[in-house]
Specification:
The complex is a heterodimer of chains A (about 160) and B (about 140).
Chain A: H1 11-14, E1 23-25, H2 31-34, E2 37-39, E3 49-54, H3 61-76, E4 81-87, H4 91-101, E5 107-110, H5 114-118, E6 126-130, E7 136-141, H6 146-156
Parallel strand pairs in A: 3-4, 4-5
Antiparallel strand pairs in A: 1-2, 3-6, 6-7
Chain B: H1 2-21, H2 29-35, H3 54-68, H4 73-84, H5 96-120, H6 128-139
Helix pairs in contact in B: 2-3
The chains are: A alpha/beta (about 160), B mainly alpha (about 140).
């Protein structure tokens, strides 16, 4: 029995709270560009951020949304930062997933899912949209579609 | 023969389910006592103590870490309420609308008690002059 996370409000998004900070290791393919570790607060307040929690075992939802996220990132990469948080997963399987979809936006590794708890995450996939001031605007539970993602980005872009 | 096979399967099922309720050896029982008062975010009607979903496992780990840091049960529960809202509590706080959830059963029990008391209360015998009056009226020919 799974509950429908869309029925449950996000405390962060409802109260427009500042996005909880985290520091996580960057997955190997992204280290050349993003360094060994990624700290969210280094990137907040400059431009909006899209945080996407995913796992390779989350089928089909994570597999449905991966191409949408990649295509949208390529279109908006100079205005919005996309960050993937691989959660409760094994590194080898995460890397296979990344290769399968050719993901080019930075991916960080959270095998315990500690950051998910800070974001009040119910399950994967979940996507949080953080505005230019570093506040959480939206929590989208389940696979994100092109139309919803575009709508959220229009809300946070000047 | 079929009965034996069924019994074997039943016992196998019981054995397979037996392990899930007992806490893993690496976490103290205090962790499970607190986790039982928190919902599993991913599941329907399960506490964070019973579920083996990734989020519930991480919640138990966090509870264990916070206990080691010397945090109290209330501080730990507040940590999860801060992130998930009061929904995460298995027992809603006793105020506002949720107050009625606590008060109504008590009121119902009190009313039931009163009704039972009234029903089973020892009846006082009627005064003899009233009984005599009633008997006399019964014996009177109808007018």
């Amino acid at each position: 029995m799974q509950r429908n996370p869309k029925e449950l409000p996000s405390v962060l998004a409802k109260e427009r709270r500042p996005a909880p900070d985290f520091t996580l290791p960057v997955l190997p393919p992204y280290r050349a560009e993003w360094g060994e570790t990624f700290r969210l607060s280094d990137h907040l307040g400059k431009r909006p951020v899209v945080l996407n929690f995913w796992a390779s075992w989350c089928y089909p939802a994570c597999y449905e949304e991966a191409p949408v996220l990649e295509a949208t990132w390529r279109r908006y990469k100079d205005q919005v930062l996309f960050v993937g948080i691989n959660t409760q997963d094994k590194e080898g399987e995460a890397l296979r997933f990344i290769q399968q979809f050719g993901l080019t936006f930075p991916q960080v590794f959270d095998p315990r899912g500690r950051v998910g708890v800070d974001y009040g995450m119910y399950g994967v996939p979940e996507t949080f949209v953080i505005d230019g001031e570093g506040r959480v605007m939206v929590r989208h539970a389940g696979a994100i579609d092109q139309a919803s993602l575009e709508k959220y980005l229009k809300e946070v872009l000047p | 023969m079929r009965a034996w096979a069924l019994l074997f399967l039943f016992l196998l099922g019981a054995w397979a389910q037996g392990g899930s309720a007992s806490p893993p050896p690496d976490l103290p029982p205090e962790v499970f006592a607190i986790a039982r008062e928190l919902r599993c975010p991913v599941c329907q009607g399960e506490s964070a103590a019973e579920s083996n979903s990734g989020v519930a496992v991480e919640m138990r780990r966090l509870i264990a870490e916070m206990l080691q840091e010397g945090k109290t049960k209330d501080e730990i529960k507040a940590f999860f309420v801060e992130r998930y809202g009061e929904w995460i509590l298995y027992e809603p706080p006793k105020r506002g609308v949720t107050l009625w959830v606590w008060v109504l059963p008590v009121l119902g029990l009190a009313l039931l008690g009163l009704g039972l008391f009234a029903y089973f209360r020892p009846k006082k015998p009627l005064p003899p002059e009233l009984l005599e009056e009633a008997e006399r009226r019964l014996k009177e020919p109808p007018a």
